[in-house]
Specification:
92 residues; mainly alpha; two-stranded antiparallel sheet; 5 helices; globular
């Protein structure tokens, strides 16, 4: 029975480690302060086109943080220049 405990513990802990997204600085490999589509391709599950809210072909730190779920706006606040006035408000 003992040999089965370690694999079970590893399998249950694996999603915790796999769920940690890369930081903006880790993804911005050229250090220009923006994440290109090529740089974003290293982030598993990141939909670059959806994350690029201003459609300029790059992700700002705010766009990246929103896309990976790190940005928590204060009640009713939105990141500057990222939301179209006609767009519905983001879901909490």
């Amino acid at each position: 029975m003992r040999p089965a405990i370690l694999p079970i513990l590893l399998l249950t802990a694996l999603p915790i480690f796999a769920a940690t997204p890369l930081t903006f600085e880790e993804v911005d490999t050229d250090g220009d302060g923006l994440v290109s589509a090529d740089e974003a391709a290293t982030v598993e599950g990141l939909d670059f086109d959806a994350a690029d809210m201003d459609k300029d072909g790059t992700l700002s730190i705010d766009e990246y943080d929103i896309a990976v779920g790190n940005w928590s706006p204060p009640d009713g606040a939105h990141p500057p220049n990222l939301l179209d006035e006609d767009a519905p408000p983001p879901k909490p």
